[in-house]
């Protein structure tokens, strides 16, 4: 495989985790809120880093109907728009593709490499990244382009056809707290994990994140992958000013994965758009029952209570948001980043120190604290912190980066003697 198209990263954990992919512009999932002017905006979204959504007792009959323009819309599971899209269906052409490019592979590792090369390589499928290329595995295969979700459908389907153990994986992107107001985007990302019998894991990605962008990860079920497919259809429908269709697609997604709080938040935003404030409030609280740290649900409650003039409730949730922000190490890390940009080394050191104390297993936070110490002229402290960051680093590429910086500091220190 062309080394320009594949990055291998080994973790310090007992399992070895490696990344296959090539870096391009990151895609966002479309999670939203609606303003009074009916403008679509994307709210900040926090997830528990490695939490698995709970199994949630759910019946689509319990979802309140949508009331819009004097009409009442109920969920119709038999609607042609809601037929099972079979996102992982493998056609005969796709089977032939897998057979053609993996039949000479004598083990699972070689099979994975051959399959990845065939999908991404210029001489075969030549898959290209397109942030708007939603769809199923066969859609991506036939089109030759995909975003992160449709690529995850495609690679999961083809890898399983090749006999590999492939699963969806949700990647939580580190929040950019210093840019946050009530309505800004936070990127959420899906890729594929392929696990070998020798316990080596590979992450396969059309759009790999930089290590410093990743705040957490967890495996996803096929049902959740399908639910996200419906979520994106819903957001496309809403962007085209088709709120009824968007509402139906979201309910269909919840029927697949009712434990995904993000879909409940989106459903609530549609109720609020329709003026169904009680139903919106109910769905936001439902999201918070699933994930008590869902910042998007809290943000939406603030917006809802502001619309209703319920200042007491609005203030309560604004306070909750502030507390959650202050308890998040990446918020303090972002303040450190801003301080570094402003060359306020003392403030940067303090912010990184607080972040590292809150998340002591994150080598990047310790490394950042070490850089701030170096800027302050505390080279012994910088060496100590960067050495500790090397021990904590999850990937070899991180370790190498930190070692280079440590060597540079030591060389500068020796030259000054």
Could you outline the blueprint of secondary structure elements for this entry?
Elements: E1 17-21, E2 33-34, E3 40-41, E4 66-68, E5 71-73, H1 92-102, H2 108-120, E6 128-129, H3 137-143, E7 145-146, H4 148-161, E8 165-173, E9 188-195, E10 201-205, E11 214-220, H5 222-239, H6 243-256, H7 261-273, H8 277-290, H9 295-308, H10 311-326, H11 329-341, H12 345-358, H13 363-375, H14 379-392, H15 396-415
Parallel strand pairs: 1-10, 6-7
Antiparallel strand pairs: 2-3, 4-5, 8-9, 8-11, 9-10
Let me know the number of strands: 11
Number of helices: 15
Give the terminus-to-terminus CA distance: 47 Å
Q: Element order, helices and strands? A: EEEEEHHEHEHEEEEHHHHHHHHHHH
Give an overview in words:
The protein is α+β, with helices and mostly antiparallel strands and 417 residues long. Among the domains are: 3-27 and 85-223, C8orf32 fold; 329-415, Serine Threonine Protein Phosphatase 5, Tetratricopeptide repeat. The protein contains 15 helices and 11 strands. The strands form 4 sheets. The chain has a 5-stranded mixed β-sheet with strand order 1-10-9-8-11. Strands 2-3 form a two-stranded antiparallel sheet. α7 (261-273) packs parallel to α9. Mean pLDDT is 82; it is low at 1-56 and 178-186.
């Amino acid at each position: 495989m062309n080394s320009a198209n594949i990055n291998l990263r080994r973790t310090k954990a007992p399992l070895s985790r490696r990344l296959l992919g090539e870096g391009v512009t990151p895609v966002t999932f479309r999670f939203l809120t609606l303003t009074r002017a009916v403008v679509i905006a994307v709210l900040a979204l926090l997830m528990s880093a490695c939490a698995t959504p709970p199994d949630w007792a759910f019946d689509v009959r319990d979802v309140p109907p949508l009331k819009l323009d004097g009409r009442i819309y109920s969920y119709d599971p038999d609607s042609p728009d809601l037929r099972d899209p079979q996102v992982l269906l493998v056609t005969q052409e796709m089977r032939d593709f897998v057979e053609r490019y993996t039949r000479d592979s004598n083990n699972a590792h070689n099979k994975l490499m051959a399959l990845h090369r065939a999908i991404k390589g210029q001489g075969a499928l030549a898959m290209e990244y397109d942030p708007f290329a939603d769809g199923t595995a066969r859609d991506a295969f036939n089109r030759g382009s995909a975003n992160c979700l449709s690529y995850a459908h495609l690679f999961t389907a083809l890898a399983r056809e090749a006999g590999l153990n492939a699963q969806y994986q949700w990647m939580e992107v580190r929040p950019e707290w210093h840019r946050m107001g009530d309505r800004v985007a936070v990127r959420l990302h899906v890729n594929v994990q392929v696990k070998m019998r020798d316990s080596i894991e590979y992450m396969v990605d059309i759009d790999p994140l930089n290590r410093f962008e990743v705040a957490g990860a967890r495996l996803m079920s096929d049902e959740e992958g399908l639910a996200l497919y419906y979520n994106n259809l819903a957001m496309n429908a809403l962007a085209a000013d088709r709120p009824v269709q968007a509402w139906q697609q979201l309910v269909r997604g919840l029927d697949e994965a009712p434990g995904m709080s993000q879909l409940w938040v989106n459903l609530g935003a549609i109720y609020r758009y329709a003026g169904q404030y009680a139903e919106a409030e109910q769905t936001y609280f439902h999201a918070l029952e699933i994930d008590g740290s869902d910042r998007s649900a809290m943000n939406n409650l603030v917006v809802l209570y502001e619309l209703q003039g319920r200042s007491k409730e609005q203030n309560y949730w604004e306070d909750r948001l502030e507390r959650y922000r202050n308890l998040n190490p990446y918020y303090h890390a972002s303040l450190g980043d801003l301080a570094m940009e402003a060359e306020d080394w003392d403030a940067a050191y303090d912010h990184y120190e607080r972040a590292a104390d809150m998340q002591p297993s994150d080598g990047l936070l310790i490394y950042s604290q070490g850089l701030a110490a170096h800027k302050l002229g505390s080279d012994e402290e910088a060496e100590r912190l960067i050495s500790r960051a090397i021990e904590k680093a999850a990937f070899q590429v991180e370790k190498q980066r930190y070692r280079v910086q440590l060597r540079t500091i030591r060389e500068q220190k020796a030259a000054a003697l």
